[in-house]
Amino acid sequence: DAGVIQSPRHEVTEMGQEVTLRCKPISGHDYLFWYRQTMMRGLELLIYFNNNVPIDDSGMPEDRFSAKMPNASFSTLKIQPSEPRDSAVYFCASSFAWTEQYFGPGTRLTVT
Amino acid sequence: GENVEQHPSTLSVQEGDSAVIKCTYSDSASNYFPWYKQELGKRPQLIIDIRSNVGEKKDQRIAVTLNKTAKHFSLHITETQPEDSAVYFCAASGSGTASKLTFGTGTRLQVTL
């Protein structure tokens, strides 16, 4: 298996633009997680899905953030409009039966 | 919700020495405690985990201990090597769909020659 796949790996955008991050979980995994990592706040869980259904989005910072999982092999995290404080590394992770999360390589987002 | 505290934030040891990282958690219902290693610019990777029905688990030079009464767990690395240098994160979670992993703030381990 190729592991969790994320795209793009790097994204540089201007403030106010829409940003879409993509994730393909490991085949067969039924949980998908979106995390954000910054020096100041560490590793934060934004939202997670079980069988494509959002279970807990309490970590989503603002209405500017939204996430979808239209099927078992694809998820998106969208930021609209983006702001400089959204600059971070965004990780997607997946797991089977909740535990042992496997992380993707991350997307480094820079908003100027 | 769950709160996980991790200490120390940085740790420097000489090659061959042991390193110990400690974490405490707040939710007594938590029953799964993984440890992740993150090298610079890379993704976090699971190195070892322990569940609440086990007090200690070992995998070669790495061991984790759990004290449910005191609500703390620790990572022990023996015979440290330069490639052990990384940031280590502890985490805690309960079971079932209502739970999620809460991560500690990380420990930057530096193994010097």
Report on this model:
The complex is a heterodimer of chains A (112) and B (113). Chain A is mainly beta and 112 residues long. Chain A contains no helices and eleven strands. Chain A has strands spanning 5-7, 10-13, 19-24, 31-38, 42-50, 53-56, 65-71, 74-79, 88-96, 99-103, 107-111. The termini of chain A are far apart. Chain B is built from no helices and eleven strands. In chain B, strand 7 and strand 8 form a beta hairpin. Chain B is globular. Chain B starts with a strand and ends with a strand. In chain B, 34% of the residues are buried.
Number of strands of chain A: 11
Mean pLDDT of chain B: 92
General form of chain B: globular
Q: Structural class per helix/strand content of chain B?
A: mainly beta
Q: What's the helix-strand series of chain B?
A: EEEEEEEEEEE
Q: How does the helix and strand content of chain A classify structurally?
A: mainly beta
Biggest sheet descriptor of chain A: 7 strands, mixed
Can you summarize the main beta sheet of chain B?
6 strands, mixed
Q: Determine the fraction of residues in helical runs of chain B and give it as a percent range.
A: under 10%
Average pLDDT metric of chain A: 94
Low-confidence stretches of chain A: none
Q: Termini separation of chain A (Å)?
A: 36 Å
Summarize the structure.
The complex is a heterodimer of chains A (112) and B (113). By secondary structure, chain A is an all-beta fold.
How would you describe this structure in keywords?
heterodimer, A: 112 residues, mainly beta, seven-stranded mixed sheet, four-stranded antiparallel sheet, 11 strands, 59% strand, B: 113 residues, six-stranded mixed sheet, five-stranded antiparallel sheet, 0% helix, globular
SSE map:
The complex is a heterodimer of chains A (112) and B (113).
Chain A: E1 5-7, E2 10-13, E3 19-24, E4 31-38, E5 42-50, E6 53-56, E7 65-71, E8 74-79, E9 88-96, E10 99-103, E11 107-111
Parallel strand pairs in A: 2-11
Antiparallel strand pairs in A: 1-3, 3-8, 4-5, 4-9, 5-6, 7-8, 9-10, 9-11
Chain B: E1 4-7, E2 10-14, E3 19-25, E4 32-38, E5 45-51, E6 56-59, E7 62-67, E8 72-77, E9 86-92, E10 102-103, E11 107-112
Parallel strand pairs in B: 2-11
Antiparallel strand pairs in B: 1-3, 3-8, 4-5, 4-9, 6-7, 7-8, 9-10, 9-11
